[in-house]
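Researcher: Please predict.
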Amino acid sequence: MNANEATLVWVDEYSRMAEAYDKNVAPRFEPIAQEVIRLADPKPNELFLDLGTGTGLLACLIAPRVLPQGVVAIDLADGAISVASYRAGNAGIRNIRFEMLDSRNIVYHGKLFDAAASNLGIPALGYDRVFQEVHRVLKPSGRFVFSEWPTDPSPSFAALRALLEKHGTRTPSKDLTQVRDAVRLVRTDPEAMALGDPRAVLKALGVAGFERRDATTKTFRVRFADVTELIAFAASYGWYERELHEMSTESRKAFDADLAARLEALSTSAGVEDIWTLNLFIARSE
């Protein structure tokens, strides 16, 4: 599987799970989105670009701040775009243009946007092209702010990944085989892995033409009521959902038991508590 094929599989999974993602994942990402907004500092009458908008969380938070201008929010997952459009409409937000576009090929005129932002939406495969495209479409005084996960997952995610590999079916369907291949590529490709390394990202931003760039790290405390809620969160990502769906009954019981044991150190009377560490970047052309 090559990078383009993996990207399409990845996109299809996000599209398939968009409603579950919006319900179970997006609310937990709002504190991170708020930090992106704090750093981006949207102002009235600015035109923003939201890359990898997903179900529209960041775009809907930025839009009221930039009136009478607005936000162009792009994503390749059509299912996510549909959910995002509903989110905005339901909130009475009218100044967002949602488009199904690849952030590696932003079909807008150069020097158009005042700022660009992304909340966990930069693609691991081809992010160097994303940076070049963002630099092209930003005004000379424009700014680019985004958040990304570090290379190493948090303890709860590390446990989920390890145990899915341990208990996952040995006779996967064609769809699960494709998903596994795509996930393996993203997690082992050196360039994709480098997206979690602030030094590598800052270097790529420099190559793209951003003369001023900075990285910071921030932690976010997260709590799940119990292990079941954590699994529901994870299952809202397509690849996790497929793994869980194709497990045998016996394997699923063993997975649940192993995960509860693995997460015992993170468990309190209030639930399962973890700390997410995020890298945040700010880049300017001048």
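Model: The beta strands are 48-51, 71-75, 96-100, 113-119, 138-148, 212-224, 267-268, 271-284.
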